[in-house]
Inverse folding.
C-alpha cells in the first residue's frame, strides 16, 4: 500500500524544489519585451546575481542549462592549442573537459579520485612545472554534484598565486551558488559559472557567467559567435542583446522572485548557514546509519563534504531498491548514483544522493531522512540506529 498522497518531495541535487512564490511569479501573461518593467527587472536580477556571487563582475545570462554556461566560458576563452589544467573530484570537471576538446584545447587533468577534494600542493607543483606560464586556465568545481566533494576555492587561488602562475581560475558553482559560502572577488576567481535550477530555486533554463576583468581581457583572443560573446552581452546596445534574442521572460519573473526570497527575506549569509545546518543533519544521520551495515558518506573528510548534496554509498543494488521504495511508498525521489569508480560512466547501483539545496526547511529534510530510515527498515538493509535523533539534534543546536 503506497502512502504517497501528500506533496511529492524531490530530494535530488537539481532541479530543486520550486517555491510556490516562484511558481506564482511565473503565472502571468507575456510582457512587452521592448519597453517597460521587464527592462528594469532584468537590471535588478543582474545586480542581485552579483550580490549572491559576491562580485562586482557583471552577471551574463544565457538561455540554457549548466552545460550552456560551460560552453559560454569556453567559447570566449579558448583558441585551438590552448593549454588548460582541469582538477577532477568526481564527474563534473570531466564533463566540462569533454566540451573543451572540440574547441581544440589541450587539457591536462589532475584526477583526485571521487572521495576527496583537490590536493592544493599538487596543483601548485603542476603550475610551477609550467615555467613559461603556458597554461591559460585552471578549471575546477566548487561542489562536484556526483561525488558531493566540496573544494577549497580560496585555497586554490592561493596555490596558483604561490606558484606565481598567470592562469585564470574558472570555477563551476552550478551546484554551490547560494548553497555554499562563495566569495568570487575576495577569493580571486576570474570566472564563475552557475545555473538557476539548484540553489536558485528556478526551473532549469538559465545559465550564468560572471566574468572578472582578467578573463574579460583574455577573451580578446577568441572569436565566439554573437550568441556567446561576452563583449556583446556586457554592453548590449539594445535590450534584446542581453540575451542575443528573445528574453526568457517567465524565467526572469521566477528568478526575480527567488532572488527576492534569498536576498531580502532571508539574506545570503543566513541561506548559507541554513544549508550548513540541513547538510549537517543529513551527515549526522548517515554517520549513525554507518555504524552497522554498508551505508557511509562517499566523501571521507568531513571538511570536504558539501552543503548542497550528500552522496551515500551502499552495498550493491541497495541504493536502487531504496530509491524505488521511497518513491513508490512515500513520494520521495532520491538522487540517482552517478558512477564514480574508474572509467565507469553511467549510473551506479551502490550509491544514492540526497539533494539539500534551495527551498528547504527542517521538516522537509527530516522527512526525507525519516523516509530513508523507514525504507532501510522495510527492505531489511542493515544500518545503525539513532539517525533521526542525531539529525534532530543538529537542528536543535542550530543558532
Ligand atoms: C548540475 C551541474 C552541472 C550541469 O548542469 P546542467 O544544467 O545539467 O547542464 C554542471 N556542474 C555542476 C557542478 C552541476 O551540479
Amino acid at each position: 500500500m503506497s502512502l504517497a498522497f501528500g506533496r511529492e518531495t524531490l530530494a535530488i541535487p537539481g532541479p530543486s524544489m520550486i517555491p510556490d512564490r516562484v511558481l506564482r511569479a511565473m503565472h502571468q501573461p507575456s510582457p512587452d519585451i521592448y519597453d517597460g518593467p521587464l527592462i528594469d527587472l532584468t537590471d535588478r536580477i543582474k545586480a542581485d546575481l552579483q550580490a549572491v556571487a559576491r562580485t562586482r563582475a557583471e552577471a551574463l545570462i544565457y538561455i540554457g542549462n549548466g552545460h550552456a554556461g560551460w560552453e559560454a566560458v569556453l567559447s570566449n576563452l579558448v583558441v585551438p592549442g590552448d593549454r588548460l589544467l582541469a582538477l577532477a573530484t568526481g564527474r563534473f570537471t570531466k564533463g566540462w573537459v569533454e566540451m573543451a576538446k572540440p574547441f581544440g584545447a589541450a587539457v591536462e587533468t589532475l584526477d583526485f579520485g571521487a572521495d576527496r577534494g583537490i590536493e592544493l600542493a599538487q596543483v601548485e607543483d603542476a603550475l610551477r612545472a609550467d615555467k613559461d606560464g603556458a597554461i591559460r586556465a585552471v578549471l575546477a568545481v566548487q561542489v562536484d554534484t556526483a561525488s558531493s566533494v566540496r573544494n577549497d576555492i580560496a585555497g586554490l587561488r592561493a596555490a596558483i598565486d604561490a606558484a606565481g602562475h598567470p592562469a585564470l581560475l574558472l570555477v563551476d558553482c552550478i551546484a554551490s551558488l547560494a548553497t555554499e559560502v562563495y566569495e568570487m572577488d575576495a577569493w580571486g576567481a576570474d570566472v564563475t559559472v552557475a545555473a538557476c535550477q539548484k540553489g536558485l530555486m528556478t526551473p532549469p533554463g538559465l545559465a550564468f557567467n560572471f566574468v572578472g576583468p582578467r578573463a574579460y581581457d583574455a577573451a580578446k583572443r577568441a572569436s565566439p559567435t554573437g550568441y556567446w560573446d561576452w563583449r556583446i552581452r556586457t554592453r548590449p546596445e539594445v535590450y534584446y542583446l542581453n540575451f542575443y534574442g528573445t528574453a526568457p521572460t517567465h524565467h526572469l519573473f521566477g528568478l526575480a522572485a527567488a532572488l527576492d526570497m534569498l536576498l531580502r527575506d532571508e539574506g545570503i549569509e543566513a541561506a548559507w548557514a541554513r544549508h550548513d545546518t540541513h547538510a549537517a543533519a543529513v551527515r549526522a544521520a548517515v554517520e549513525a546509519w554507518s555504524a552497522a551495515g554498508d551505508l557511509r558518506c562517499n566523501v571521507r573528510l568531513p571538511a570536504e563534504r558539501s552543503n548542497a548534496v550528500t552522496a551515500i554509498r551502499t552495498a550493491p543494488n541497495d541504493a536502487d531498491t531504496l530509491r524505488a521504495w521511497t518513491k513508490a511508498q512515500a513520494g520521495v525521489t532520491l538522487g540517482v548514483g552517478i558512477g564514480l569508480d574508474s572509467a565507469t560512466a553511467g549510473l551506479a547501483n551502490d550509491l544514492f544522493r540526497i539533494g539539500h539545496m534551495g527551498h528547504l526547511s527542517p521538516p522537509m529534510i527530516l522527512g526525507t531522512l525519516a523516509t530513508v530510515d523507514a525504507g532501510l527498515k522495510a527492505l531489511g538493509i542493515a544500518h545503525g540506529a539513532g539517525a533521526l535523533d542525531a539529525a534532530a539534534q543538529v537542528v536543535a543546536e542550530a543558532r
User: Anything to note?
Assistant: The pocket of pyridoxal-5'-phosphate is lined by residues 14, 65-67, 92, 141, 143, 145, 172, 174-175, 195, 204 (CB under 6 Å).
